[in-house]
Amino acid sequence: MATLISRSPEETLALGRAWGESAMPSWIVGLSGDLGAGKTQLVKGLALGLGVTARVHSPTFAIVCEYADGRLPLAHLDLYRLETAAALQGAGLEDYLLAPRGVVVVEWFERWLDHGLPVDAARLRRVQIETVNANERRISYDDTGA
Ligand SMILES: Nc1ncnc2c1ncn2[C@@H]1O[C@H](COP(=O)(O)OP(=O)(O)OP(=O)(O)O)[C@@H](O)[C@H]1O
Ligand SMILES: [Mg+2]
Asked: Which of 33, 46, 52, 60 could be 20's S-S partner, Cβ–Cβ 3.0 to 4.6 Å?
């Protein structure tokens, strides 16, 4: 597991950008962290690194936002409002988590796992973002996958 400290929103953006630049197909990035931890900020960087030109915002109301104009397709999922197994299973997200095509990045990813739902990707990066103080975040991540 790797751990680093981000000292500003810009540093988190830059980390995401580096990940996006080296992203491979069929990659799931599962993000966990409290409200305002910086999950969406990291996704904005990922999108930049993939060359997505659209502005990324939180898909909290849409659940999924897809961006097709980067080097790889990017799907941005936000599970915040899906609190039960039934809601998670009824949202039509299986394909993203069982057969990801490009890069699939998931906010509140722990919801999926905590309900025992399956994930299958060639590559999976689990990321935990902790708020240290107003500007500092501790970002830890671990790579697994099939
Ligand atoms: N080091 C940092 N990294 C990332 N964001 C930071 C940092 N320091 C301060 N911030 C601020 O924290 C907030 C992070 O917001 P963001 O929407 O990315 O969080 P989130 O984890 O997606 O929250 P939510 O669970 O509501 O979706 C922003 O206002 C950002 O400016
Ligand atoms: Mg968010």
From this structure: 46
The pTM score is 0.97
For the record, the structure tokens of 80 come out as: 């915040």
DSSP character string of 111-127: HHHHTT-----SEEEEE
Centre of ligand 1 from the C-alpha of residue 146, in Å: 30
Structural tokens at position 3: 């751990």
Q: How far apart are CA 84 and CA 25, in angstroms?
A: 29
Q: Closest by alpha carbon to 80, among 115, 108, 114, 39?
A: 108
Number of domains in the chain: 1
Q: Does residue 70 form part of some domain?
A: yes
Residue 47 sits in a domain whose CATH number is: 3.40.50.300
Is residue 17 one of the residues assigned to a domain? Answer: no
For ligand 1, mutation pick of 3, 5, 40 (most atoms within 8 Å of CB) = 40
What is the per-residue pLDDT across 92-122, written as a single tens digit (0 to 9) for each? 999 999 999 999 999 999 999 999 999 999 9
- Distance CA(115)–CA(20), nearest Å, equals 28
